[in-house]
Description:
- The chain is an alpha+beta fold.
- The protein has helices at about 15, 20-30, 65-70, 75, 95-110, 125-135, and strands at about 10-15, 40, 45-50, 55, 90, 120, 140-150, 155-160, 160-165, 165-170, 180-190, 195-205, 210-215, 220.
- It has 2 domains: about 10-135, no CATH class; about 140-225, Bromo adjacent homology (BAH) domain (SH3 type barrels, Roll).
- It contains 6 helices and 14 strands.
- The longest helix is centred in the middle third of the chain and has 15 residues, at about 95-110.
Amino acid sequence: MACSGTKLDRDARAIDLYRDVMYESYRAHVRSDAAPRVLILSARHGFLQPDTEIAPYDERMTRQRADQMLSDLSRYLRPASWPTRVGTVMLAGGKEYRRVMRAALARRYGPTLPPVLQETSGGIGMQRSQLGAFLDGLQPAFRDQIGQHANGTPLYRAYGWIKAGALATLLYRAAPALPSRQARVLSVFKGPSGPTADVEVEEFVRGRANIRPRWVSVRELHLSTEVPA
């Protein structure tokens, strides 16, 4: 994301310091279970992690300033701020900011860079809409690998709100007549049909409760307050 002209009047984390409408759109659309990795391009400081604390300043990304950055790009890259790998990328900002962003991505990732980058364009209203649509379309990510299946499939601690140890309500979408049941999540993984949870399910057989292991789609699991009527 590009920095903004509107800022707080005190030192703050970069993600909090910038207050223009693009950052308003970011805050309105970002979800805790599908938050992207963000880098901020400051016209003064170069690329910043969102939690970097900086003071207010007044500098814009003019064509001349962009040329200056491109002529000494390594000075502004801050390599430790960049993720090891990238997937879907959105460049949010004006054309001079995006020019520096594209050059930085090419320098950092070279041939491993995704062939298609999404970019904002048009007026500020259109750019806000594009950023919001990008954030709305992000899927939750697997987090914190904790092991693997015998075939090498990684097991993770969390996927979105679903976390190992969490209690959830299991309701089979293909069989809505079946009663809901309690399930405890053990791990999550990428199964053949999509994100899958390894769970222990409470089932009643002849009036007695039994705990049985199951693999279920994460779409079948709900917070207790979110079970469909």
